[in-house]
Amino acid sequence: MYNEFKPDWVLMDIKLPLMDGLEATRLITGKNPEAKIIILTQYNDTEYREVASKWGAYNFFLKENVELIPKCLNNNNSTRES
Q: Rounded mean pLDDT of 12-35?
């Protein structure tokens, strides 16, 4: 789906019905390293953050902090999650 639409941003949950969101992130960024994927999840887990960063997620937010996402989207000079 990413290759068809090439969105400016992708908002990705970790738990998805057909595929894990982290795996989907890996697949997207593997073919499209310029993809900007934000992980939005309820899981405050260091391992998830590390995997998201390793596989090219632009940033990682907890659902309880969803109000921070617009700032990330509007900050074109922001750096990737480390």
A: 95
Domains recognised in the chain with CATH numbers = 2-74 (3.40.50.2300)
With contact defined as beta carbons under 8 Å apart, do 69 and 38 qualify? Answer: yes
pLDDT tens digits, 60-81: 999 999 999 999 888 865 545 4
**Dihedral sign, Cα of residue 5, residue 70, residue 82, residue 23:** negative
What token pair was written down for 5? 């639409």
- Rounded Cα distance, 63 and 72, in Å: 14
Tell me the pTM.
0.84
